[in-house]
């Protein structure tokens, strides 16, 4: 048996969820031949091979590279994000999901974790719904402190209140938190918000407003922002949405 399994043949996806940890992306075909996304890692493959007798020797080279931590998702270098507000807004609005479920958040979070694991700095990833329901939260590498969690909360609050990425808000005020607080009369609540890059709104086609918030904390703020942008693009391209949206723009 090879990794080219249908959901039916592996007796449901619940088994996969039980053995997933540090993850990379692999596509597989359903019985209807429609590509879907499942997150796997080397440990996952080992566990599946033991439990189900799965062999990976026939996996296509590009997928095998991803699974062995040599693929595009884990090694793609970060580009510098723009600082022009219109350019930031255009990029942010181009990232539009057709759905955003707990399963989507899990896959996206694991992709972020895979990429962040290539950096020396300890980081935190948080994905929550707009109603603050947590969908994904993890630390990447040792050294994370409660301060990272505080940054996550402040970045998330900014995204939810202003409906924009924290990188956009940072550049709107040139990083001046005092001007930001005065503009919106935040007064003693100013400490609840942050205008440092790394907070990003999740938008879903046909749904008004922000559906969820993705936050990364621990790298330089432009890196926190850009790693979310590039990973979201990878995710959307993987399910056939990203290219179509960019053509529309």
Number of domains: 2
Distance between the termini: 43 Å
| Overall geometric form | globular
Strand order of the largest sheet: 3-6-7-4-5
Low-confidence stretches: 1-42, 54-72
In total, the number of strands is: 7
What is the CATH homology-level superfamily of the largest domain?
Haem-degrading domain
Give a quick set of tags describing it.
single chain; 249 residues; alpha+beta; Beta-Lactamase; 2 domains; five-stranded mixed β-sheet; two-stranded antiparallel sheet; globular; disordered N terminus; PduO/GlcC-like_sf; YBR137W-like
Overview of the molecule:
The chain has 249 residues and is α+β, with helices and mostly antiparallel strands. It folds into two domains: 14-75, no CATH class; 85-248, Beta-Lactamase (2-Layer Sandwich). It has helices at 14-19, 42-52, 61-67, 72-75, 85-94, 102-116, 146-162, 166-172, 177-183, 221-238, 242-248, and strands at residues 24-29, 35-40, 96-97, 123-129, 134-140, 199-204, 212-217. A hairpin with a 5-residue loop joins strand 1 and strand 2. The chain is globular and about 40 Å long. The termini are far apart.
Task: Offer a concise description of the structure.
This is DUF967 domain protein. By secondary structure, this protein is of the alpha+beta class.
């Amino acid at each position: 048996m090879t990794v080219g399994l249908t959901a039916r043949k592996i007796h449901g996806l619940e088994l996969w969820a039980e053995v997933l940890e540090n993850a990379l992306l692999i596509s597989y075909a359903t019985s209807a031949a429609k590509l879907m996304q499942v997150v796997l890692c080397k440990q996952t493959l080992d566990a599946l091979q033991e439990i189900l007798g799965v062999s990976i020797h026939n996996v296509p080279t590009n997928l095998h590279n991803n699974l062995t931590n040599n693929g595009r998702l884990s090694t793609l270098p970060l580009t510098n994000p723009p600082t022009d507000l219109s350019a930031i807004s255009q990029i942010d609005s181009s990232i539009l999901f057709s759905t955003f479920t707990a399963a989507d958040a899990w896959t996206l979070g694991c992709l972020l974790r895979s990429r962040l694991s290539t950096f020396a700095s300890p980081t935190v990833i948080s994905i929550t719904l707009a109603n603050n329901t947590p969908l994904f939260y993890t630390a990447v590498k040792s050294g994370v402190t409660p301060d990272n969690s505080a940054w996550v909360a402040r970045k998330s609050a900014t995204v939810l209140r202003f409906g924009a990425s924290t990188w956009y808000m940072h550049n709107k005020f040139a990083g001046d938190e005092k001007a930001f607080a005065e503009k919106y009369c935040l007064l003693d609540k100013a400490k609840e918000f942050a205008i440092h890059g790394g907070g990003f709104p999740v938008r879903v086609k046909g749904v008004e407003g922000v559906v969820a918030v993705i936050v990364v904390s621990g790298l330089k703020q432009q890196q926190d922002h850009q790693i979310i942008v590039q990973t979201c693009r990878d995710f959307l391209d993987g399910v056939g949405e990203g290219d179509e949206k960019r053509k529309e723009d």
